[in-house]
Amino acid sequence: MAGLRTRYSGVAILLHWALALLLLFQLGLGWALEDLPSSTRFAAFQFHKSVGILILALSLARLLVRLFVPRPAAVEGAPALKLLAGAVHWLLYGVMIVGPITGWILISTARVKLPTLLFGVVPLPHLPVGRALHEPAEAIHSLVGLLLAGLFVLHVAGALRHHLLRDDLIGRMMPAAIARRPALSVGVAVALVACIGAFLAGRLSYVRADTPAAPAADVPAEASAPINETAPATEPAAPASPAPSPSPSASPTTAAMPVRSWKVAPGGTLGFRTVYSGEAINGRFARWTADIQFSPDDLARSKIAVDIDLASVSSGDAERDDTLKGEDFFGVAAHPKARFTATRIRKQGSGYVADGTLALAGASKPVPVAFTLKIDGDHAQASGTATVRRLAFGVGKGQWSDPTTIPDGTTVTFRFAADAR
Q1: Are the CB atoms for 255 and 392 separated by under 8 Å?
Q2: Prior bond to 226 cis, omega within 30?
Q3: Both 244 and 367 in a single domain?
Q4: Are 287 and 226 in contact, with CB atoms under 8 Å apart?
Q5: What is the pTM of this model?
Q6: Whole domain around residue 193: which residue ranges?
Q7: pLDDT tens-digit series, residues 165-195
Q8: Span 55-97, pLDDT tens digits
Q9: Is residue 15 a part of any domain in this protein?
Q10: Are 227 and 192 part of one and the same domain?
Q11: Which is it for the CA torsion 250, 252, 253, 258, positive or negative?
Q12: How many domains does the chain have?
């Protein structure tokens, strides 16, 4: 029955060309992922996963069509060439199915299991497989990309060989209107251009000028407060009612201290703590600057301004960090910095409270910051805590907005030393 057909079915033709373009797009995108700017990498990974699952579904459909829908008879030719052509075709089916499945295993066995919404709509469940499969799946997934490129070259070379020999075999997989020359030659040229365009679209679709979030060159060295790796962000938050601390003045007999400018010393910490699906997350910001004008004897004229480079976020997992930088959370492309400003500082017990405003992700909300302070001459040490209600700032949109998965309140802690200028 198959020998009675001279052309592939319309469904087979549609699936063939759809898969060709999707595979080349996916190949280009996959090879570009690691080089993408941080502001687009997470979205690109999510789209890569969505396209992969689409390729898997279409590949299974194409395999069913090949097995159960009559197709043209095999072309006569040298046995070696027929064997090579058959091997290339079946290896392509294997790559189209194994590639997405190994990718699915990778996201299912990742240390941090981030949810996937296919094309931002359909949730993709994780496969019930063990962590032991992660490294083998990663190795196979990388190999699949190289194998796909080689198979594609062989497949295209074979099709062009038939076309140059003028047997018009490629016309069987073209729409009927262009199945014969000279229209077929135009169709072949268009197909080649479309395939190259699909690959380049994958390579370039998420490449755009990355909006730098306060690059290091723009941060004055004397004001930069990098995180001290020996002081992790898991330090306990300062209590709501701070414990008694030594008197903020150098000596009870000295005159009132004027408002002075304080320079933050290297080695400070600015961290945050939250929970994701029951797992504690301890993060930090590696780059931030502070402009502090303060005197414990003149709180009315004291003020604080802190700028935080959101792209410097680190939570112990690169994929999670990219998520935090993406549009669903900080949106660093549009809002590279968070800024806290306070011009009202009041005494509370043995410590202080800075009633300030936090500008984050395009929203500004009041946030009180409790802190303790010890001043010894021209040297000061400060530590404190604040609670930021992330949902009020639109941090954690869509699938991340459920407070039972990630609590609304995020604890921010800090500790640093400073010297009077």
Answers
A1: no
A2: no
A3: yes
A4: yes
A5: 0.56
A6: 2-204
A7: 767 677 777 787 787 777 878 877 888 899 8
A8: 999 999 999 998 898 878 776 767 887 788 778 888 989 999 9
A9: yes
A10: no
A11: positive
A12: 2
